[in-house]
Structures are given as C-alpha cells and as structure tokens.
C-alpha cells in the first residue's frame, strides 16, 4: 500500500520562531517575547524575563527569521517544493495585543488574510495552530494565564474571531500546540503560569481550563463552518522499558499514560481517563470539574489527532539514579544502545514512528497527522554556497518508509508536515545553529546575518518525494 492520492505533504513552523516583528503593527508581547537566548554549548535553555531589556539581552523571537516581511518569498519556496499543506500558527497577541480586548487588531487580521491569499495562489492548504506557545504576556501577568477561568472566554473570543474571519480560507485547525506539556513544569508554555510557584492543583486546574477552551473552540468552529476540521496536537514521546524487568515495564506504562494518553483521551474521547482521576485522588489534587464541564468536553471532541515525533526514550524505575540519561524534547529518559543520536542527543528511531502511529490509532481510530518531525543538526555551507545535508535526507527517508508501512498496517494517516521546513529559531534555546529546514536562512545564534534564503540538498530531495507521492525516495 502506498500513500493516499490526497495525502497532505508539507512543512511546519510557528509564528514565535519565524515571524519576528514582535511589536509592529499593533502586536502585543507574548510570553515567548520574554525569552532571551540560551546556548547549547553552555547547556542553558532560555531565560524568562518578566521585564524585557533589549539594551542588555538578545531576544530571538523579536526578529525570528523575519518571515513577517518575507512570507511571500518563503511561500514561493514552499510552492517550489510542491507543498500541499503548510502548518503555521497565528500569533494571538498580533490579533488581541493584551488578550483580553473585545475588539481585535485589524492590522493583525489583515496580515494573515494576505498570508492565506498567498498560500491559495499556489494551491497550498493552510493548517493553522490557534495557540502555539504564544499566550499574550498580559494574560499570564494579570490573570495567571488559564488558572483564571476568564482566560477561557478570552481564548474563545480569539478563536471565534479567527473562525469568522477566515471561514472561507482555512479548513484545518489545531486548538493548542503540544497541549500535554501542560502536565510538566507547571505548563508555562500552555497554561501561562509564571508569576510565582504554583501547586500541582493549580497546574492541573489551569490545564483543565485549557481543555475547556479547546472544547469551546471546537463547538464554535463547527457552528461557524461545519466543514472545518479541528484537531488536537500533542508532543508524543514514545517510551520503551529499558529492560524486561516488570518494574521497568510498569513504570513505562505509568509515565506513558500520564504524558501521552491523558490529554489525548480528554480531547478525542471527551472525558478524563480513570488513571488521572486516581492520580488526583492519591495526590490530593483538587481540580474543579463540573457536570457542565463534562458535557462540554464531550461536545467539543476533535475531528483528528496530530502529534510531534522526534525520538523515543527508555524508561526505568530507577531513573533518578542513572548516569546515562538522554536529551529530548523537554522530556528525558535513559539511552537506548540500539539507536543513533542527533547532534543534540535525541535518539533517532524511524521504526518507532510506525510503532507510535499504530499505538495512537489503535487507541483513538481517528485520522492522524504527523505535524512535527525532523532532524536538528549543524549545517555547513560549502564554498560554492551548497549545503549537502545527506544526514537529513536519510533521516526523512527512513521515517517516510515507516509511515508507509503504518498505512499498510491500516493506520489512517492523512498528512505529514516536517518541522522547521525553513530554518528558524529553536524553541528550547533560541539558537539558529540547530537547523531543521530544507531551506537555509543566513542567521547565527547572536542574530547576525543577511537572512537570505537558500536551498539545501534536502530541498530538491523533498520536492521529488512530494512529486512522486512518497514513491521516489532515492
């Protein structure tokens, strides 16, 4: 079995990592705009500043790769590759600068009108993430983000504004990016909690309110345009037991349920799973969940399930005592001696993608999309300007082969949008040197460079993949 004829090949970005123009045309600051750069070499993630100090520090999202001004050039390059779909996000604070206004910023709405029109010119379907770690800073500072139920209404107003404005331009929507990060580190990226130390009850109450906001958006969107397809998006970290010791197997199951299954169950099935109810009871976590909330979650289930897949990890019951921990997308584990790792220590596991697709589909049986997948690596520009990223081509080739096998297994996989189809700033550190794209952007970790775009070897390879609908991987 090969890829379906209408398979959605494309690529993915996020506004806060590529747009720049952080305070232009009425845009307010988002929580991302308060992150100053970190460094892989110094092993530091970004520092979150309550007060922005551009005189002393570099904030990568303020300029990104300047796609706000260069989107036409970028979309033309996507079209040259043959994209069928482009996953992008809308910057919430570009539409509602503080997040709690009643009236939107027309300049922000007009910008995305122009982006969608440009995509339509080339026949590229937009896949829009409504909130991709871009909560308006004011909502976090003033309301403690989604801990305050008023933020649910602010999000609903924002989402409804988008649905009504773009009802004839956008079909595919995602409510929140990697929503399950709301279960970790108090969920600053998702829940908007950063003013103080928060209890676990507050963390999960805020996440519950995010679930309600998502459900309200689904209900509203389907009323505005019944043809809308509105999905969820999770960071899926596939986990294997480190050994066949029953303790390792049980620990893997427990972590997998809480991180990978909990949020999917709420958004696809419309209800809290039994294991989270028990977790709340055991840990005296008092989340207010009304009967009205339960009905809303049932009414606001998503149409399809999307996820990011970069790596797999191994779990053991003595994780804290180990000295062989591995890196990852905000989630660690221990090393797998059967896998190679990227320059950033992420374990590369193409076969794990097939396993993951089957694991998710067997649980939910709704259409799936892989909306983030890719290899962050150092790229070297040759003297003649070429970039021979065969390592990236091999990475994608092996993952596409496994996707095709999953389709043959019976999985309903409808699309694939590799992450960072154009080089952009890292979500974890703000670096540019960690490059994912098929398109090279002349920018360094300190924000220097021309921002000129150029095609990597993988650009031409992916073009032939799309042209052949996944058949020509040579």
From TrEMBL:
<dbReference type="InterPro" id="IPR001360">
    <property type="entry name" value="Glyco_hydro_1"/>
</dbReference>
<keyword id="KW-0378">Hydrolase</keyword>
<keyword id="KW-0326">Glycosidase</keyword>
<dbReference type="GO" id="GO:0005829">
    <property type="term" value="C:cytosol"/>
</dbReference>
<dbReference type="InterPro" id="IPR017853">
    <property type="entry name" value="GH"/>
</dbReference>
<dbReference type="InterPro" id="IPR033132">
    <property type="entry name" value="GH_1_N_CS"/>
</dbReference>
<dbReference type="GO" id="GO:0008422">
    <property type="term" value="F:beta-glucosidase activity"/>
</dbReference>
<protein>
    <recommendedName>
        <fullName>Glycosyl hydrolase</fullName>
    </recommendedName>
</protein>
<dbReference type="GO" id="GO:0016052">
    <property type="term" value="P:carbohydrate catabolic process"/>
</dbReference>
<comment type="similarity">
    <text>Belongs to the glycosyl hydrolase 1 family.</text>
</comment>
<dbReference type="Pfam" id="PF00232">
    <property type="entry name" value="Glyco_hydro_1"/>
</dbReference>
